[in-house]
Amino acid sequence: MQNQAKSLLLIATAFFASASPAWSVPLNMVTAGNDVGQSIETRIDTEKMGLILLRNGLVKMQGKNITVHSVPEWLFDRHKVLSGKMISSKFGGTSTISGLVYFFEGDYLSHLDKQRNKDSITLTDGRVFTGKVATINDQSITFRTLPGGKIAGTSQDFQFSDIKLLDSPRAYFFTIPVSDVKLTDGASGLAADAKAITFVPTGALRKAGWFNQKAKAIEPKSTLPGTEGGPTKAQIATLVMLDIINDISPAIIAPIVGAYGSSSANKYLQQFNVQQNASGAPVFPYGRVGELLGPVPQN
Q: What are 114-162's pLDDT values in tens digits?
């Protein structure tokens, strides 16, 4: 009866976990009066950021700042793994807030820009500059153009309001579905409920279809203290397998000794180990039968 009750409880728990929607969280957005965002305040749980898998992930947005938090492998608490700035945001109609962010520091930053690709900025007037983002603050980006650029080897500042697109491994589009939207502070702000946030790297635009069809999110290797870890999963599996072999070996040997006798059984096991070695499978870990089972009684 107790087992049946436990089974019913587990089934009910699984059903409600799968059927229940994600919890909504409050979101506040200050706009410039034309649905263009100036700042966002919210905290949203998420499982991944583009191609980065986040363990118990959380995204915090405060003003122009955005931080991504995760629980790296071998740790137990959330840690800030990425920090960035919100370049633009917009309230689209009645159900979506979207925008563009750029990350400039964090434990996972090197995972975003493994190839050290060039950045490019497209301005609202149509001009395009190629180079690298040097610094970023709440209002502008300092951009260093590379040789071959329109203003090669120089640095200049671009205001967020003048940037149409930043194509960079560190730049991401974000989308937040919202509901129960209410205007606040006259027409200069809004409050809403948010359930999720998704990220797509800006570079995905140049690889049409690849991001959705081929991309697979993975958890980056953390460099935070305490993430050095212990045995790998493969090593643990090997140890478990050897422990199983250690437990079942006596049950294997006893019938062999009974059928062949001690001397013949040793030869049989040696042949078995040779075959196992040839196939790459684990060998029998015990030496001679007598060493494991003791002297075999003589008839």
A: 667 889 999 999 999 999 999 999 999 999 886 655 555 688 899 999 9
Biggest CA pair distance of the chain: 102
In a domain, 109, yes or no: no
Q: What is the residue type of 292?
A: L
Taking residue 178's Cβ as centre, other Cβ atoms within 10 Å add up to 22
* Secondary structure tally for the chain: helices H, strands E: 5, 14
The tens digit of pLDDT for each residue in 45-90 reads 998 888 788 888 899 999 999 999 988 776 667 778 999 999 999 9
68 in a structural domain:
yes
Bridge partners (DSSP) listed for residue 189: 30, 184
Tokens coding 151: 């203003």
Q: How far apart are the C-alpha atoms of 132 and 156, rounded to whole Å?
A: 11
What gap in Å lies between CA 28 and CA 275, rounded to an integer? Answer: 69
